[in-house]
Write a structure and sequence with these properties.
290 residues; alpha/beta; eight-stranded mixed sheet; 10 helices; 34% helix; disordered C terminus
């Protein structure tokens, strides 16, 4: 495909859509029959652009790419999560696809976004072409401790003296393998995002303690092919979670990166986009029923 004619910036790709009274913010680029719906993680300061912005230029050369802000994050409205942590998000994004006239999409989910992708595959299977599950929540740790070091850091970020740049720097250093990636600019961006919107925004974060639905009990029902991507130095969701997902999802493959933490699209940007594009091109077939 030809290269984009204009730079793909945070602002040039910014869009809004209203679904059932909820205003959702997303970034859009690219075109064609393949649609990628990218859903970010739920840590403080996370956003669609922050988690997947580095992947947009390359992915959008091959597909229409929608990078969403979870409700309660970025520039999206908050929603009621009383019914669970993942299905309400999945319902909103399935409705978003309908509103945009998109029949099916490959859902790329990071951390919390991975669990949202799983929920979409379980409860809106007709909308999901494939799954790319990156450091995904929604599984079960086989041998790592719960809560993990990273989960404790996320839950304590707004506690005590409240958010700070020092807390954000410590979290980012724990989340990624290479400390050189934790620049002052990245710390500032994530910190400012974490305090934007006041208490209403903070209520949408992982630290709010909304109970998670036991998606792990239903993973055997997923019919969409899944690519599972993980870093072996992930201190938020240990790679034993990846092994569980691989075992439970009927049509799944796993790619592990050494010397990589949770944020694979950022830590392994080029390799990650090539991996996703290869998965799209391969079109793995769902095994026939016995």
């Amino acid at each position: 495909m030809p290269a984009a004619t204009e730079p793909l910036t945070r602002e040039s790709t910014s869009r809004f859509v209203t679904v059932g009274g909820t205003r959702l913010h997303y970034h859009e680029a690219g075109s064609g029959p393949e649609v990628l719906l990218c859903v970010h993680g739920g840590a403080p300061g996370a956003s669609g652009w922050g988690n997947f912005g580095t992947s947009l230029a390359e992915l959008s050369r091959h597909a229409k790419v929608l990078i969403v802000d979870l409700p309660g994050y970025g520039r999206s409205d908050t929603i009621d999560l009383a019914g669970g942590k993942y299905r309400p998000y999945a319902d909103v994004f399935a409705a978003m696809l309908t509103e945009l006239g998109i029949e099916r999409a490959t859902v790329v989910g990071l951390a919390t976004g991975g669990a949202v992708a799983l929920a979409m595959a379980l409860y809106h299977a007709e909308r999901v072409e494939r799954l790319v599950l990156v450091s995904s929540a929604g599984g079960v740790p086989l041998f790592s401790t719960t809560p993990s070091e990273g989960q404790q850091a996320i839950r304590s970020y707004y506690a005590g003296e409240g958010p700070s740049r020092e807390k954000m720097r410590a979290y980012l250093r724990m989340m990624m393998y290479d400390p050189a990636l934790v620049t002052d600019e990245l710390v500032e961006e994530r910190y400012l995002e974490s305090v934007a919107g006041g208490e209403e925004r903070r209520a949408g974060a992982e630290s709010a303690g909304v109970p998670a639905e036991p998606l792990w009990q239903e993973l055997g029902r997923i019919t969409a092919p899944a690519l599972i991507v993980w870093g072996t130095e992930n201190r938020v969701q240990g790679f034993d979670n990846a092994l569980f997902l691989l075992r439970q999802i009927p049509d799944a493959r796993l790619h592990l990166f050494k010397r990589t933490g949770l944020w694979v699209p950022y830590e392994r940007a080029g390799e990650f986009t090539r991996l996703v594009l290869g998965f799209l091109a391969d079109r793995p077939a769902v095994p026939a029923a016995a």
